[in-house]
Amino acid sequence: MITKLEHNFTKNTKIYFEHNVEINENSYLIIFGHHINGGFIAIPDWNICCEASANSDSSYYNRIKLIDAGVDEITAKEISEYINSWIEVNSQNRGD
């Protein structure tokens, strides 16, 4: 087996935020970022990771991805809305 290693992959990666969020008396460490092929949401203490979008209208998409990864619907909605709020605030701060 031959593995090809790409040396410049870190140019396309970024962590947007790492926040601890309380939802329904549970704590979720949410890491929202970008990898070489797109966005991601990781919740390591719950063994959850999924693809994500960093667009300001992506709350529904991110909610569905979280549900597909095993997050219950209420928590997925809260997390995706939290991320969407963060995107909107930070887009305004950048002048987008």
What would you note in describing this structure?
- The model has no long low-confidence stretch (mean pLDDT 88).
- Strands 1-2-3-4 form a 4-stranded antiparallel β-sheet.
- The protein contains 2 helices and 4 strands.
- It has helices at 59-68, 73-94; strands at 14-23, 26-35, 38-43, 48-52.
- With 96 residues, it is an alpha+beta fold.
- The radius of gyration is 14 Å and the shape is globular.
- Helix 1 packs antiparallel against helix 2.
- A hairpin with a 2-residue loop joins strand 2 (26-35) and strand 3 (38-43).
- The protein has one domain (13-94).
- InterPro entries: DUF6618 (IPR046726).
- Pfam families: DUF6618.
List strands and helices in order, with pairings.
Blueprint: E1 14-23, E2 26-35, E3 38-43, E4 48-52, H1 59-68, H2 73-94
Antiparallel strand pairs: 1-2, 2-3, 3-4
Helix pairs in contact: 1-2
If you compute it from the alpha carbons, what radius of gyration comes out, rounded to the nearest whole angstrom? 14 Å
Strand numbers in spatial order across the main sheet:
1-2-3-4
The percent of residues in helical segments reads 25-40%
Distance between the termini: 45 Å
How many domains, as an integer?
1
Largest β-sheet summary: 4 strands, antiparallel
Quick check: average pLDDT? 88
Low-confidence stretches: none
Would you tell me the structural class of the helices and strands? alpha+beta
Number of helices: 2
**Helix and strand run:** EEEEHH
Shape: globular
- The number of E-state strands comes to 4
Q: How much of the polypeptide forms β-strand, as a percent range?
A: 25-35%
What does the oligomeric state look like here? Answer: single chain
